[in-house]
């Protein structure tokens, strides 16, 4: 991911993640936006060059052009041979065409070749479409996230 692509990623990620935080953790949108901003700054202090993290633009080639259709952020842990997907996004115009499954299969091949044996991720409770895509690609529910406001 280039620096310009990272800027586009952050411009999408912060408001999208803030919506999820607000919905799932019952915070105001302003509080959720600040939390999302803090989390991205803490998680990726060197932007797209943060060691240990992989940020990739998902592209579609055709008719002599390459078009960015989404993004993928993950971290591989070679000690426990697992990877965690922090964010997987396809632009709305490219959803429902099998591109998400293709991107996941490409990632699985790449990680498997590197010795990774397991991929973990979290899906927001209200994101039924994403859950269905992951389940269709062999992912299983392993638990539930819960919270309580004090």
TrEMBL record:
Span of domain N-acetyltransferase: 12-150
Keywords per UniProt: Acyltransferase, Transferase
Entry-linked Gene3D superfamilies: 3.40.630.30
Protein name as catalogued: GNAT family N-acetyltransferase
């Amino acid at each position: 991911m280039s620096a310009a692509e990272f800027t586009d990623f952050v411009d999408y990620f912060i408001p999208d993640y803030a919506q999820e935080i607000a919905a799932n953790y019952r915070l105001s949108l302003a509080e959720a936006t600040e939390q999302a901003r803090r989390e991205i700054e803490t998680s990726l202090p060197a932007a797209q060059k943060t060691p240990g993290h992989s940020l990739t633009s998902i592209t579609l080639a055709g008719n002599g052009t390459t078009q960015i259709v989404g993004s993928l952020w993950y971290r591989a842990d070679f000690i426990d041979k697992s990877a965690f997907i922090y964010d997987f996004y396809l632009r709305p115009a490219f959803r429902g065409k099998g591109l998400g499954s293709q991107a996941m299969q490409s990632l699985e091949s790449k990680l498997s070749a590197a010795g990774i044996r397991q991929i973990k991720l979290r899906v927001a409770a209200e994101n039924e479409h994403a859950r269905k895509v992951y389940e269709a690609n062999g992912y299983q529910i392993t638990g539930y996230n819960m919270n309580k406001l004090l």
